Amino acid sequence: xxxxxxxxxxxxxxxxxESIPYYEKVxxxxxxxxxxxPGQKVRTAFFKVGQTKLxxxxxxxxxxxxxxxxxxxxxxxxxxxxxxxDVATALNDAEEQxxxxxxxxxxxxxxxxxxxxxxxxxxxxxxTEFCGEK
Length: 134
Ligand code: ZN
What we know:
This protein is α+β, with helices and mostly antiparallel strands. The chain has a single domain (about 5-130), classed as 2,3-Dihydroxybiphenyl 1,2-Dioxygenase, domain 1, CATH 3.10.180.10. The chain is built from three helices and eight strands; from the N terminus they run βαβββαβαβββ. Strands 2-3-4-1-5-8-7-6 form an eight-stranded mixed β-sheet. It is globular, with a radius of gyration of 15 Å. The relative contact order is 0.21. The site of zinc ion has 6 residues, from strand 1 and strand 5.
């Protein structure tokens, strides 16, 4: 199964309030949604660039995944999300190819989409997300 497009790029930021103005004023994009995802200990802000979105990620807990990432690496690109028609099948296919998965099964992500992560140790350093309707 291959991706149809890049669904979004996840970017870790210290503060949504401080980073949104850059995307709006300098790049001329507009934030169309802000959503808190308690399960992932993040608050997200979304922008559209053509068919691809930017997902800014602000940590709500220093012990959460984005909190730890910011602590280690600082602000920057956190993950790449590929749009997949069927996330469960895409995860299974990747695992059959020997890829280590973070999520064995899809779970609910932002915007009500099904998501699943591949481990960056198996993807040449890029934290990879599959994202789709099912
Ligand atoms: Zn994402």
